[in-house]
Amino acid sequence: MKQILSISQQMGPMLQAARKSAGLSQAELARRLGISQSRLSAMELCPGSISLDQLLKLLSALNFELLVQTKEGSKVDSSASEW
Prior knowledge:
By secondary structure, the protein is mainly alpha-helical. The chain contains four helices and no strands. It has a domain of 52 residues: lambda repressor-like DNA-binding domains (434 Repressor (Amino-terminal Domain)), CATH 1.10.260.40.
């Protein structure tokens, strides 16, 4: 599955769909991540509260990866890649 996200609110439904597609309950996924079910629920409902480290662990547990790329048709200032 390839999903383009533009705002953090789009992450919650995507995470929930990925979890359900993997056949995992919130309780099971939370157990695998070493967090409470209520924290996982909060992550799905309010994805802006997720740290990058938490997001990467969650995506990995769901067999997903994060890919960052330039938008199609956009030009990026070369200095932006020199953070």
